[in-house]
Amino acid sequence: MSVYVSAALRQQVIERAQSYCEYCLFPEAFSMYHHEVDHLIALKHGGQTVSDNLVLACLSCNRHKGSDLTSIDPVSGKVTLLFNPRTQSWRDHFQLQESYILGLSATGRTTVFLLRFNDSTRIQVRQNLIAYGLYPNSSDASPI
After folding, report:
1. Is the terminal CB of the chain with fewer CB neighbours within 10 Å at N or C?
2. Among 67, 143, 144, 80, which Cα is nearest to 112's?
3. What is the reported pTM?
4. Per-residue pLDDT of the chain in tens (144 residues, 90 and over written 9)
C-alpha cells in the first residue's frame, strides 16, 4: 500500500535522522539507493502518517522489517517488540563492536536478527566505512 508523505514531512524525517538509517545507522550518502521514509507502525496495523510514526530506513532494513512490529528473540525464544527509534535510544539496545552490531537487549537482539544487520555484505560495507571514519563509531553510538 502506498501512502502520500508530504515533501515537508519527508524532509523533517530526513533531517531528524541526519540522513542515517535509524535502525542500522548506515549513512545515506554511501547507499546505492535513497533511504526510505517508512511507517514504524504500518497503516494496516493502525499506524498514522505523522512524524512520530515515521522513520528513515535504508533499503535493506526497510525490506527486512516490512510491516512487522515483533519477532522472536534468538536467545530467549520469546516474541519481542522491534527497536523503535522514536521512543528508544540506540545505545540502550545496540553496540558497534568492530564491524558487527550487537544486540544488548531482547529488543536489540531481535532487531539485529530480523533486520539482518550482520549479513556478510553489510558487515563488509560497514567495515570499509569504519576504516575511513565514515560510520558512527561506538563512542558516538548514534548520530541521531
Report:
1. N
2. 80
3. 0.92
4. 557 899 999 999 999 999 999 999 999 999 999 999 999 999 999 999 999 999 999 999 999 999 999 999 999 999 999 999 999 999 999 999 999 999 999 999 999 999 999 999 999 999 999 999 999 864 454 555
